[in-house]
Design brief:
heterodimer; A: 215 residues; mainly alpha; 2 strands; 2% strand; B: mainly alpha; 63% helix
C-alpha cells in the first residue's frame, strides 16, 4: 500500500486479530455485554466508538506535549466527554429510536476502558497521523467482536438480522418455526454475550496457541 | 478386544475405542513399579452406584407420567378419580406413555452427551471420562415431560461443552453439568419449562382445544395463592403422585436412593442433612412471619409463606436436588465443615427463592448452582481456619524434649 507504510498498516491490522482489544486485552467488555442483543445496536456502537477513539486519539496526540502529566487523566476525560456528547446528540437527532435502545451506553463510552487505554498507551507518545490509525484499528477490532456477538445473539435469540426476520415468522409458524424451532431466550440476556465472547476467545487461542497466556 | 486395542494404539480414534474397551472389560494393563492404592470403587463404580439409585425413580416416573395424563383428562371431564396403586397406577397403559415419552429423553440425553464427550476425547487425545454417565441419567429426570427433544439436545451440548469441557472435563468443572443443562433450558425456552401445561403429557398440544388438560404443580398453585384448590394430599406429595418434572416427584424413592448412596458412602450425608436443616429453618422463619401477622392473605407471598415448613421437602425438586445434585463430589465442598455450610445454604436459599420469586417457582437448581460457585471459597476459609487454629495450638504448646533424640544418639553410638 502506497498510502500507508508497513508499520502504519500494522497499526490497523494488529488490533483486528492478534492484539484485539476485547479478546486479547479484555477491555471494553461491559459494553460488549450490554448492547449486543441486536446487530444494529452493535454496529452503531462500533461506529460511535470509532469516531470517539479516532478523534480523541488525534486531539490527545496534538496536545501531548502541553498536557501536564499530573492532570492528564482529567484532560483526557474532558476530550472523551466532549466527543461522546457530540455522538449522543447526533444519534438523538437522526436516530431517535436507536438512541433509546442504546440508552445510557452511549454516555458510558466515556468509561470504555479501550479509549482511556489507547490515550495512555499510544496517543501520548505518538504523532497525530499514527494515533489516528491506531484509533481506527482498535475501534475496528472492537467493532468486529461486537458485530460477531451481535450477529449470533440476534440470529439465535430473536431470529432476525438488523430487525429483518430471516428464519420465518414465530407467530405465524413459517420457515424454521413450522418444524418446531423456537427462539432461544437465553441469547437475549447479557450472560449469553459473555459466553459468546468466551467462545470467540477460545476459538482464537486454539487457532493461534502463541496467544495463550502463561500464568 | 485386547488385540484390537493394540492395533488402534496411537491412532486418532484410540481414546474413543479405549473407552468402549474399558467400559466392558478389565484393562489388560497393570501398573509397573511404585506403590499404588488398590480399590474397587473407581470412577466407573461410583457412577454406576448413583445410576442404580436412580433406576427406581426412573421407572416410577414412567408410571407417573401416564397416571398424570389420565388424571388430567379425568379432571378436565369432571370425573372424580381416586388413586389405587394396582388398579390405576401400576398399569400397562401408564407405563406405555412413560416409555414413549421418557425413554426418548433418556436416549437423546445420553446419545448427544456421550457424542460430545467422545468428540472432545478424540480432539484432546485423552481417555473418555465417565462423568457423563450420571449426568445423562439425571437430565431426563429434571426436565418437564413434554420437553422437545431438539431443545434437550441443544441444552445438552451447551451444558457439556460450556459447563464441563471448557474447564477441562470431568472433575474440573465448577458447575454441575446437569443443572447447567436445566438452567439453560429454563432461560432459553421458558415457555416449555414453566406454567401449568408442560408437566403433563400432551397438555401443550391440547391447549386451547375442546379437550384441553392441565396439570399445575403444587408450587404453581401456591405461588398463585390457590393452595386451597389443590387436591393433593400429603401422602400424594410424599409418594409422588403429583405433576412435576419427570423424576422429581417421588420423595419416598428419592429418600431410598439417598439412603443407598449414604450406605455405599458415595454421597455425603453431611450435605444432605444440612440442606434439609437449611430448608426447614427457612420454612420455619416464613411460617413464623405469617403467624405474627406480618404477611396477610392478600400478599402474593402468602400461599408459599404459609405452607407448612416441612412440606417444602416433599414437593418440587428440593428432595431430588439435595440427594442427587447438591452431593456431586466435584462441584460441592470438600471439607467436612464446608459441607455443612454448603448444604445449609442450598436448603436455605432454595426455599427463599421459591417463596420470593414466583417467576422461578423452582429455585432449587439456582440455589445449587450458586452454592457450586461458592464451594471453593467456603473450602478455602475452612482450611485457613483450621491452619490458624492449629498454629495457635502449636504456639501455646510446651515443647518437651523429645524422647527420640536420646534414643537416636544411643542408636548412633551402637552402630558406630
Amino acid at each position: 500500500m502506497a498510502l500507508l507504510s508497513k508499520k502504519d498498516t500494522n497499526l490497523i491490522t494488529d488490533p483486528l486479530a492478534d492484539n484485539n482489544p476485547i479478546t486479547i486485552q479484555v477491555l471494553g467488555i461491559c459494553s460488549a455485554l450490554a448492547i449486543t442483543a441486536e446487530l444494529k445496536a452493535s454496529l452503531v456502537m462500533a461506529v460511535s466508538v470509532m469516531f470517539v477513539l479516532a478523534m480523541g486519539n488525534v486531539v490527545i496526540s496534538l496536545m501531548r506535549n502541553i498536557i501536564p502529566s499530573k492532570i492528564r487523566i482529567i484532560v483526557q476525560l474532558i476530550v472523551v466527554a466532549t466527543l461522546v456528547i457530540i455522538v449522543d446528540q447526533v444519534l438523538k437527532a437522526f436516530a431517535y429510536e436507536l438512541s433509546k435502545t442504546l440508552a445510557v451506553f452511549v454516555g458510558l463510552i466515556i468509561t470504555n476502558c479501550i479509549i482511556m487505554g489507547r490515550f495512555e498507551a499510544f496517543a501520548l507518545g505518538n504523532g497525530p497521523w499514527r494515533s489516528f490509525l491506531d484509533g481506527i484499528g482498535n475501534s475496528m477490532g472492537y467493532g468486529l467482536i461486537l458485530v460477531i456477538v451481535g450477529f449470533f445473539r440476534e440470529l439465535l435469540g430473536s431470529g432476525t438480522l438488523f430487525g429483518i426476520p430471516v428464519l420465518g415468522d414465530p407467530i405465524e409458524k413459517t420457515g424454521l418455526y413450522s418444524i418446531g424451532y423456537e427462539n432461544n431466550g437465553f441469547m437475549i440476556i447479557p450472560p449469553a454475550a459473555l459466553i459468546v465472547v468466551g467462545i470467540i476467545i477460545w476459538v482464537q487461542r486454539s487457532r493461534n496457541p502463541a496467544l495463550v497466556e502463561e500464568n | 478386544m485386547h488385540e484390537l486395542k493394540l492395533k488402534y494404539q496411537g491412532k486418532k480414534m484410540a481414546p474413543a475405542f479405549n473407552a468402549f474397551h474399558t467400559f466392558l472389560f478389565t484393562p489388560n494393563e497393570t501398573t509397573h513399579g511404585g506403590t499404588h492404592v488398590k480399590a474397587v470403587d473407581d470412577l466407573k463404580r461410583t457412577m454406576n452406584t448413583v445410576i442404580m439409585a436412580l433406576v427406581p425413580i426412573l421407572i416410577f416416573s414412567m408410571f407417573n407420567a401416564g397416571y398424570q395424563y389420565y388424571a388430567a383428562i379425568d379432571a378436565a371431564n369432571g370425573t372424580p378419580r381416586t388413586l389405587s396403586l394396582f388398579e390405576n397406577f401400576l398399569t400397562w397403559d401408564n407405563f406405555w406413555i412413560g416409555i414413549v415419552k421418557v425413554l426418548p429423553l433418556l436416549v437423546v440425553s445420553y446419545g448427544v452427551g456421550l457424542l460430545v464427550e467422545f468428540i472432545f476425547a478424540v480432539i484432546k487425545g485423552h481417555e473418555v471420562e465417565e462423568g457423563y454417565l450420571v449426568t445423562g441419567m439425571l437430565v431426563p429426570l429434571i426436565v418437564p415431560i413434554d420437553t422437545p427433544l431438539w431443545m434437550l439436545a441443544v441444552a445438552v451440548v451447551f451444558g457439556v461443552v460450556i459447563g464441563k469441557e471448557v474447564f477441562g472435563g470431568t472433575g474440573m468443572n465448577i458447575l454441575n453439568p446437569a443443572l447447567t443443562i436445566r438452567a439453560f433450558l429454563f432461560f432459553a425456552y421458558p415457555t416449555w419449562m414453566s406454567g401449568d401445561k408442560v408437566w403433563v403429557y400432551q397438555a401443550v398440544e391440547r391447549a386451547g382445544g375442546p379437550d384441553a388438560i392441565s396439570g399445575e404443580t403444587i408450587l404453581g398453585f401456591l405461588a398463585q395463592n390457590k393452595g386451597s384448590e389443590m387436591a393433593y394430599s400429603v401422602s400424594d406429595m410424599f409418594f409422588g403422585f403429583i405433576p412435576g418434572s419427570v423424576g422429581e416427584t417421588s420423595t419416598l424413592l428419592i429418600l431410598l436412593g439417598g439412603l443407598f448412596l449414604i450406605y455405599t458412602k458415595i454421597a455425603s450425608w453431611r450435605i444432605m442433612l444440612s440442606a434439609v436443616i437449611g430448608s426447614l429453618v427457612m420454612g420455619l422463619i416464613f411460617n413464623q412471619v405469617v403467624d405474627m401477622g406480618w404477611v396477610t392473605e392478600t400478599s402474593k407471598f402468602y400461599g408459599l409463606m404459609s405452607f407448612d415448613f416441612w412440606k417444602h421437602l416433599i414437593i418440587g425438586g428440593l428432595a431430588f436436588g439435595i440427594v442427587f445434585m447438591a452431593t456431586d463430589p466435584v462441584t460441592g465442598s470438600q471439607t467436612n465443615r464446608g459441607k455443612w455450610i454448603y448444604g445449609f445454604f442450598i436448603g436455605f436459599i432454595s426455599v427463599m427463592i421459591r417463596v420470593f420469586n414466583p417467576a422461578y417457582p423452582e429455585g432449587v437448581f439456582l440455589a445449587i448452582l450458586l452454592m457450586n460457585v461458592f464451594a471453593p471459597t467456603i473450602d478455602h476459609y475452612v482450611v485457613q481456619g483450621n491452619i490458624k487454629r492449629r498454629m495457635k495450638r502449636l504456639k501455646n504448646a510446651v515443647i518437651l524434649p523429645k524422647d527420640s533424640d536420646g534414643k537416636a544418639e544411643e542408636l548412633k553410638a551402637e552402630t558406630v
